[in-house]
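Subject: design request, 663 residues
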């Protein structure tokens, strides 16, 4: 593949050589919604959110999402329905092939109806074909519900903390029995969703950091299901509201506000990086210089004791950590047959060079929590040499696994789980919505961790493995990227998303966070010798990615404290501030495809030094990071606030003039 540099503006912004997908805001009287592709999003009644999203989901035999190709989309207004949207969809991948027609209507009595009628065009296996309805965490958590089930009406309150999804006889259990309708009391207005064509079940999707409770279609037999050519599918979801029409909030001036809470300080969690999964050598030369400049609190290494090369991997990791001036976080994957190897650790690495050890069962690490007996056996094998080193238990998988297998209080020295924002949804906006829910998972873990720390390790942009797979994944073809890689890794979007993640996890009290990897297409910069294969990844040898600059701006966090920074538009603007003897630093990011006007305050002093990373400066900042980091311009502060214009997907660092940094 011919190297193209610099990438297009869109690739620099959000990793795809195309504008962000266009959405339409549609309204009939007080009922309004956003049509994003063919998904219905943010259904509102007089400005009050009823439903966050309604969409048609197709998941293959391994629970991988198969996106549709849409054609013939038409929007009509008239009688008898004031608004009608029609289109055709086709979902195809390997043997799976389903064609369907979609209709979205707003009726004269102000109900929103989404219908689908589809047909299997081949024989295939699948895990879901049908609608999913999302209630957002912000609108629904803590709200009373009423569900119409086969056994009668069920009432309850949706949990504020993340509700565990238990498994009985191999089947995930919903929050309440399958239903044909659910009503949610939003405080005077009742939002109702009626389902036809299937019974629907609700799960707390925050277990995977989705910002929602998901109600989805179900079938009686265990999945995966078998579809035969010609098989029909038909479902309907109807959304309605009852109760007094809420008073609309005052019209926005178009400016977003970021409010700094100078009266509340937060401890900064440890921030580390994962070892590169692409390199089979230690970091060298400029690679190690740049990683050292980030001052990581640790480097994570995964040690699978069943692998013949685990000792060599540990040696390489220890060399990288020494060169970077930091310690190791060892993710130790052990099992009964390999416990004898645990005792070799003390002869291979200095215990003082290890920040912590995360203990996992190698067979179940991504699908469950650490067994207590394995944890105790590992502790015994490590002996006195690692006596002062914290040993944590938990899961190498999603928070869902830890939440459903909560260890007895005080069992481990701390709890750990991994995190990624793309288990169920993949668009930029959905990824941004996960940020607030990351904090909810930490709050939930802390509710059963006692006084032990909660560690999030690692945070990745995509899933590192598919714990739900029932069959082998298709081979990765030439010129394509593996499913663990996302081109947004090298984009401005990731810098802003990571800023929001650090702010959320720190605010919830996470003790330590491991982000991404050192180098490579899951890292914070490219290897000195380049991508290594002709894949469609926006990179070139030796560059840093935009997220590198964010982490570099946090490198002097030690000795400072974090200041909460609330945004009035969290789907667009994320922020975090640091304060210390040298002054205040404010980090801001626009995580939307639109220009955003922001007012930041309260601020002391007369001005700040500003450095903007956007599509116009990103290519140069990636090629020559040191030169970019010497840039800056004065920004005045008037009446205790700064008025800013943030370009799409941009990232901005502000330093008080007395604290202007060039590093």
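Subject: RE: design request

Done. Sequence follows.
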């Amino acid at each position: 593949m011919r190297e193209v540099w610099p990438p297009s503006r869109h690739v620099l912004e959000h990793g795809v050589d195309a504008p962000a997908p266009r959405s339409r805001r549609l309204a009939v009287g007080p009922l309004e919604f956003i049509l994003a592709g063919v998904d219905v999003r943010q259904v509102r009644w007089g400005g009050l959110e009823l439903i966050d999203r309604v969409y048609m989901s197709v998941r293959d035999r391994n629970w991988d999402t198969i996106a549709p190709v849409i054609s013939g989309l038409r929007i009509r207004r008239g009688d008898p329905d004031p608004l009608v949207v029609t289109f055709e969809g086709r979902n195809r991948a390997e043997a799976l092939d389903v064609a369907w027609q979609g209709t979205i209507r707003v009726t004269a009595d102000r109900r929103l109806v989404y219908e689908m009628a589809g047909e299997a065009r081949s024989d295939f296996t699948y895990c879901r074909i049908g609608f999913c309805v999302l209630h957002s965490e912000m609108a629904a958590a803590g709200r009373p519900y009423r569900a119409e089930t086969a056994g009668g009406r069920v009432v309850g309150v949706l949990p504020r903390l993340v509700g565990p999804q238990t498994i009985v006889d191999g089947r995930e259990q919903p929050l309440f029995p399958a239903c044909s309708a659910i009503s949610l009391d939003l405080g005077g207005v009742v939002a109702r969703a009626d389902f036809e064509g299937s019974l629907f079940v609700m799960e707390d999707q925050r277990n995977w950091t989705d910002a929602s409770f998901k109600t989805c279609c179900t079938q009686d037999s265990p999945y995966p299901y078998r579809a035969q050519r010609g098989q029909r599918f038909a479902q309907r979801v109807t959304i309605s509201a009852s109760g007094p029409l809420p008073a609309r909030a005052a019209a926005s001036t178009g400016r977003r506000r970021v409010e700094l809470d100078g009266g509340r300080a937060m401890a900064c969690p440890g921030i580390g990086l994962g070892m590169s999964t692409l390199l089979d050598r230690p970091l060298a030369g400029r690679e190690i210089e740049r990683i050292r400049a980030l001052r990581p609190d640790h480097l994570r290494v995964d040690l699978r004791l069943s692998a013949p090369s685990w000792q060599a991997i540990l040696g390489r990791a220890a060399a990288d950590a020494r060169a970077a001036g930091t310690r190791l976080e060892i993710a130790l994957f052990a099992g009964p047959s390999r416990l004898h190897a645990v005792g070799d650790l003390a002869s291979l690495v200095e215990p003082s060079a290890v920040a912590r050890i995360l203990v996992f069962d190698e067979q179940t690490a991504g699908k469950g929590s650490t067994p207590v007996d394995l944890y105790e056996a590992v502790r015994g094998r490590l002996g006195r040499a690692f006596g002062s080193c914290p040993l944590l238990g938990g899961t190498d998988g999603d928070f869902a696994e830890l939440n459903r297998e909560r260890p007895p209080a005080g069992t481990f020295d701390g709890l750990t789980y991994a995190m990624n924002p793309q288990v169920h949804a993949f668009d930029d906006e959905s990824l941004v919505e996960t940020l607030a829910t990351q904090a909810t998972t930490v709050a939930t873990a802390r509710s059963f961790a006692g006084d032990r720390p909660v560690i999030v390790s690692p945070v990745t942009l995509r899933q590192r493995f598919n714990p739900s797979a029932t069959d082998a994944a298709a081979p990765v073809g030439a010129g394509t990227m593996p499913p663990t890689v996302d081109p947004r890794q090298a984009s401005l979007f990731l810098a802003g998303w990571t800023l929001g993640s650090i702010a959320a996890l720190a605010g919830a009290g996470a003790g330590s966070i491991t982000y991404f990897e050192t180098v490579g297409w899951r890292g914070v910069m490219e290897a000195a010798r380049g991508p290594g294969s002709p894949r469609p990844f926006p990179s070139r040898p030796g560059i840093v990615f935009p997220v590198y600059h964010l982490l570099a701006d946090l490198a002097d966090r030690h000795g400072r404290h974090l200041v909460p920074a609330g945004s009035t538009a969290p789907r667009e603007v994320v922020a975090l501030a640091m304060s210390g003897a040298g002054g205040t630093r404010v980090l801001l990011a626009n995580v939307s495809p639109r220009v955003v006007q922001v007012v930041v305050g309260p601020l002391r002093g007369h001005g700040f030094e500003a450095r903007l990373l956007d599509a116009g400066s990103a290519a140069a900042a990636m090629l020559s990071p040191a030169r970019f980091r010497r840039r800056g311009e004065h920004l005045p502060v008037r009446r205790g606030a700064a008025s800013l214009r943030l370009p799409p997907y941009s990232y901005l660092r502000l330093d008080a003039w007395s604290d202007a940094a060039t590093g």
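The CA atoms of residues 565 and 576 lie 5 Å apart.
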